[in-house]
Design a protein that fits this description.
The chain contains six helices and three strands; from the N terminus they run ααβααββαα. By secondary structure, it is mainly alpha-helical. It is globular, with a radius of gyration of 17 Å. The relative contact order is 0.13.
Length: 140
Amino acid sequence: MSAETAGQLVIEIANLHSRIQKRLGGPLSFHGLGLSDYLVLNQLSLAPRQRLSRSDLAERVGLTPSGITRLLNPLAKIGMVEKESNPRDARVSLVALSKAGKRTHAEAKVSFDAAAGELFAALDGGRLAQLEDCLGDLLR
């Protein structure tokens, strides 16, 4: 693949990212969430005991440590997440999904999944599986 072709592919992926944000932003805003907020709640819902260190959460969501802090503060203020101290290491703070966060995530997941399904409706099962494989290769 030429550098020019790779550059064009990155531009197309960036355009897809923008389309994802637009298509999913509306349904998520009904639940009071943005896409990044939803991704944080989703990662916490998947984590053991529904809690992660800030650094692990930042890595899983693709943000810097300062970026995750800026995102978590409003979520903590509205009761979606709770800050906890780590009993094994006082230097590491944990973020946990609150009861309200669990409920909001479960409700928003229905909207998220429906909007995501519409986004990829143009792809049949085989092409969708190929895309999933390609993305998996790139993200490893």
